[in-house]
Amino acid sequence: MNVSGDEANSLEQAQRFLSGENFYSQHYFGFHKDIKNGLSGYVFRVWAPNAEQVWLVGDFNDWTDSLPMIKGNEGIWELFTQLPAEGDLYKYKIRQAGGRELFKIDPFAIAFEQRPGDAAVIHTIPEKRWKDGLWQGRKKRSDYFKRPMNIYEVHASSWRHHDDGTPYTFKSLEEELIPYVKELGYTHIEFMPLMEHPLGMSWGYQLIGYFALSSYYGTPEELQAFVESCHLNNIGVLIDWVPGHFCINDDTLPYYDGTPQFEYEDPDRAKNIRWGSLNFDLGKPQVQSFLISSALFWLEMYHLDGIRVDAVSSMLYRDYDEGPWTPNHEGGNRNFEGYYFLQKLNAVIKLAHPKAIMIAEESSSKTQITGLIETGALGFDYKWNMGWMNDTLRFYEMDPIVRKEHFDLLTFSFMYMMDENYILPLSHDEVVHGKKSLMHKMWGDRYKQFAQLRNLYVYMMTHPGKKLLFMGSEWGQFLEWKYDEGLEWRDLQDDMNAKMQCFTRTLNEFYKEHRALWELDNSYDTIEVIDADNSQETVLSFIRKGKTKKDFLLVVLNMTPVERQGFSIGVPYEGSYHEILNTEMKDFGGTWTKMNEDAAAEEQPFKQFDYQIRTTVPALGAIIIQPKDIKIRKKTR
Q: Which of 63, 95, 189, 279 shows a CA-CA span of 20 to 30 A to 583?
């Protein structure tokens, strides 16, 4: 039998999808302009192997059964038609296995109508001529492990609202968010999921459209323009992505053809009780093609710089969820399908885009998340350090009078901080659901809360690891984040909030300017603890180091409301030392009008050091000191 070139290509695409190796399956499924027998129209394809019949329905045929699709040998339904036009809405009507009929979304749709509707939109994204070549070239030549990374986490529709209460779309975000992030000194923006979702209350983590920008946020072209503008302003863009589970709404992906198609066959594995969703069957080849295609689509269509994969633990462990679970063939809780899918995901993306930043939100310590796949790791570049975040916030919420009894919460991370490549997150999850804002978590009156918030940010910025802060936290918003309202921008009319924002801006620039805080970030060579045992005074001190011996910073954090005068700090070399940051300065909301004077090192042992300096550490404050005029002597045996 003779097969035309188009038919052969179509058959190859279908077979690669079925084998789990079609990583651009959106080029085959969904709708595409086509010419058949000299007639211009659209071809539609959908995977529904056990459906009894599928119809294409939409504005163009009054949502009737007039356009039945034809089922191919591989369980893929296809139809060519001239009826649709750009901007029309459409769905598939499916007679499922067993005879039930219902409307379903197109899993490969690239645009949807505004919610509460969920019909797909026939929208062709025009090919863009990108102008971010300089950014892309620098990215190829640089090593992001040895560069500063300070991420501003954003929920796109609640960063700011218009006066009439409507949220900003990406057109407005381009005009206002980018200058703001640039002014504040962040290196990257990370968006909570931007893909189509039916319920704003899910914050975007209950997806239906894995290839579609939510129409709530604007058009695909507007997002492209936003990312390009970010790159022209030297700002990277990351997004959250949810390959573990999906929205349970009946007219979306669940039991698409009437059988477990995208989800696991085992009902206990399919149900995600904790989040009220369904889990993808990550071992099914077609699902792998679908999800990896989605990840590559977002990276390439929007020139994104990386992806944060949400809820990795739920994909790694069969018993992560509530309710009954089935052990694997070895009798354990490892979800081998999820484990190997994540390795495959990272391998495919890194082969296509070696500089794409892959981040895992993962809360356990049983699996190596970052590092080479060949060593058994999952292949991610970074892991959110949830342990650091939980311990740190728990410590700062305590009354200082008992902090000395829990000093290990602040220092324990030094024991494992190089086990993975970490990002230190103070994220959206910590400022919602009654957890209180970061500002509100802090102990004491309002003045002390701001002092501790500045202290906390210095601790985060000087601790090894990349950084992430959720929007609004930069000025100490007191109210919890509300997903359906804009941030409390009126806070900045208050002098204390304005000064807190000034401090965050200063600290962000300080971080970028001092190589000791990032160029050896993933090596123990970057840090030397001065004193992590001073629980009685509850003062922590350590050194952050750059590549050269003279490039280092002394960091001292006072966790009590007691000013420490004449405080001793061990230093490695003789000479003088100069204070370059003090959280208690008046410009930042404190009371000090001038910094500590330079300190001369005394030849007096302090732990492993031959010298020490003395200075004053403000109550609930942090100071950073750098060498000014030091002598480095070679040690003699």
A: 189
